[in-house]
């Protein structure tokens, strides 16, 4: 998708702080972290939202979720972690390439509601 910022990150034409990559998926740090260590996981195939993901694509993507969560847990030592995923502008989606948020949580002052 030519106008998709996350496809450009996959291509490498927009830089990102990558933390995991395989043939199906890419994870990188969020440019506007809501807490320390906020990261995103995306499929390499452009899929706008959860409704467009095939079962196989979902399996390939979610297979690496524990690995990424554990890497962030080891690096940032949060007290907890939220996984979050928005579909549609009304649900808060701003980038229309499927992404799963990893939001490490620290204490009540960590800034995320
Ligand atoms: P959404 O609201 O669509 O669920 O979340 C989009 C996320 O993408 C936001 O947390 C935002 O900070 C992040 N984001 C938007 N543009 C970029 C970018 O160019 N690079 C990175 N690393 N993150 C981005
Ligand atoms: Zn895309």
UniProtKB/TrEMBL annotation:
<dbReference type="GO" id="GO:0008168">
    <property type="term" value="F:methyltransferase activity"/>
</dbReference>
<protein>
    <submittedName>
        <fullName>HIT family protein</fullName>
        <ecNumber>2.1.1.-</ecNumber>
    </submittedName>
</protein>
<keyword id="KW-0489">Methyltransferase</keyword>
<feature type="short sequence motif" description="Histidine triad motif">
    <location>
        <begin position="97"/>
        <end position="101"/>
    </location>
</feature>
<feature type="domain" description="HIT">
    <location>
        <begin position="5"/>
        <end position="112"/>
    </location>
</feature>
<dbReference type="GO" id="GO:0032259">
    <property type="term" value="P:methylation"/>
</dbReference>
<keyword id="KW-0808">Transferase</keyword>
